[in-house]
Write a structure and sequence with these properties.
This protein has 273 residues and is an alpha/beta fold. It has helices at 17-29, 68-74, 100-106, 116-121, 126-138, 151-155, 159-171, 198-215, 218-223, 237-241, 260-265, 267-272, and strands at residues 4-10, 44-49, 55-62, 80-83, 110-113, 142-147, 180-184, 226-228, 248-251.
Length: 273
Amino acid sequence: MGRKFLVGGNWKCNGTIEEVKKLVTVLNEAEVPSEDDVVSVLWENFLNLCGEGKVGKEVVVSPPFVFLYLVKNLLRSDFQVAAQNCWARKGGAFTGEVSAEMLVNLGIPWVILGHSERRCLLAESNEFVGDKVAYALTQGLKVIACVGETLEQRESGSTMAVVAAQTKSIAEKVSSWENIVLAYEPVWAIGTGKVATPAQAQEVHCELRKWLHNNAGAEVAASTRIIYGGSVNGANCKELATQPDVDGFLVGGASLKPEFINIIKSAATKKSA
């Protein structure tokens, strides 16, 4: 079974109403073939291989919470929208949180969970991220679940141990991987200008797929999309996209720029690889 290439755009904590409208206009006017089935959440693009050899892609953009409804109503219909986070259980007395039920009520289909900025800055543990993923799935959301190691962890040779532990905390709490996309984002490459080489990205993606094979089954390993995030831009996306286990990108800073369109179009590179 082929995997559809996914490109996601994470706008993080950026934008005003006018700036967001301009971003959406750029996306709406972009010449992206509709037959590629692009979905936009956090400006994410997903490239998947369809069963008959055609390459498809999803584009997902993820604006800040306050702009979700605006973007959903203005964005082209072949792109989708994602939230950047949601609470780990049903809503209630949790000041400042947004529940999965609220996102579903707004018609938001995707959510990003476990991003390293939340793990590092807000001390979200592996277990807490696993709880979030599991609950979001029960409410019908699709999840982009982030994993990745720090520079210290990479230099100590513990990259796979770290991402395996993060993935295990999710696997222990879900019964199906059908609506989960894994995003490998090396922390040392996020917003730093440093990028994992195509070989480094492929190595981790391949090992993650092996982990899924050994712990969740061959079908899950073959069908689950593993996308790369970490200073992806218009200059490096094509080479990264040629790697066999790289199924798309989660794009940060570049998703706020016109070059995001070129990253979406890198799906064609996957098709020819």
